């Protein structure tokens, strides 16, 4: 029986909107990555819209990474992501949970 060893890091580049219209499709893709890597990096630089469903997806991803003993890294935050984090107060949740610090330009 073959044994699959997860790689160290997988990078998922998200583009376009992360909204109620795309969250289900992106959820399935994202959750498939956690068993495959010790670290999952989500590059958010090309996310041009982020609503509450998108924020819920990011929270779910963080919870799933913790549940599976993996690390979730959010990187390259777009202006839309920074604005949504500012409005929701989620900066600290992701920072305290061990993600990469939000970098402001």
From TrEMBL:
Task: Check the record and name the Gene3D superfamilies matching this protein.
Answer: STAS domain (3.30.750.24)
**Residue intervals of the STAS domain:** 11-105
- PROSITE patterns assigned: STAS (PS50801)
User: Can you tell which superkingdom this protein's organism belongs to?
Assistant: Bacteria
Question: Signal peptide location in the record?
Answer: none
Q: Can you say what this protein is called?
A: STAS domain-containing protein
